[in-house]
Amino acid sequence: MLIFLLAASLSVWAQSAPPAVQNPAGGSAANSTAARPPSDAPQSAASKPSTDNGGQLAPNPAPPRSDSVNVNALDDEPGESSSKDDEVDLSPPENDARTHPDSADAVNSAELSANAGDVSEFHPWDPHKAAKDVEVGDYYFKRKNYVGAESRYREALYYKDNDAIATFRLAVCLEKMNRPDEAVQEYESYLKILPYGPEAKDVKKAIERLKNPAMNAKPEK
């Protein structure tokens, strides 16, 4: 009778116990739970911060994890910028005025040029037309129309800068019109163009004559 009661109790206990949940990897849930390390288990060497010999935390070469960033600790203040809007120190270096004494004049000259405009006066280059103007100027000069001759010689220099023939003819024309200062200026321009040109000897005599008119004046009888 006692054996019968013991067997019945074991049967009732087996029916009331919960079934074991199977793990996909094999084994029951109890075994899987037992295989997990507890939360207070020591960290592995890869996740645990290492220390150097002095006890200080050594830098961790692993990149930071995004899930470890505290978003609430970030603020909305702008950081430092390296854009063009940053102020730049434009003050001159020490001893700049002594090292570069002519720098102020150069700056002033550049400012005047900028204020005057970036486009300079344009002179067309047409040697053929310049030669034609000299030919017409000679025609007027031979007929003593010095005003017309001067206009043509100047137009020739407009189309061909530093033309020696037009410069010499203009100087002679100005001397004929009794304008010695302008004539000397054109004679000197000729010598700058052709210091040893075919008219250089006569030009030097003309300059001396125009600069010292008293020495070349004829004595009165």
Helical percent range?
Answer: 40-55%
CATH topology of the domain at 127-211: Serine Threonine Protein Phosphatase 5, Tetratricopeptide repeat
Mean pLDDT: 72
What profile does the largest beta sheet have? none
Structural features, described:
The chain is mainly alpha-helical and 221 residues long. Helices cover 49% and strands 0% of the residues. It has a domain at 127-211: Tetratricopeptide repeat domain (Serine Threonine Protein Phosphatase 5, Tetratricopeptide repeat), CATH 1.25.40.10. Mean pLDDT is 72; it is low at 23-35 and 39-47. It contains nine helices and no strands. The chain has helices at 2-16, 29-35, 96-99, 103-116, 127-142, 146-159, 164-176, 180-193, 200-211.
Question: What is this structure's SSE topology?
Answer:
Elements lengths: L1 H15 L12 H7 L60 H4 L3 H14 L10 H16 L3 H14 L4 H13 L3 H14 L6 H12 L10
Helix pairs in contact: 5-6, 5-7, 6-7, 7-8, 8-9
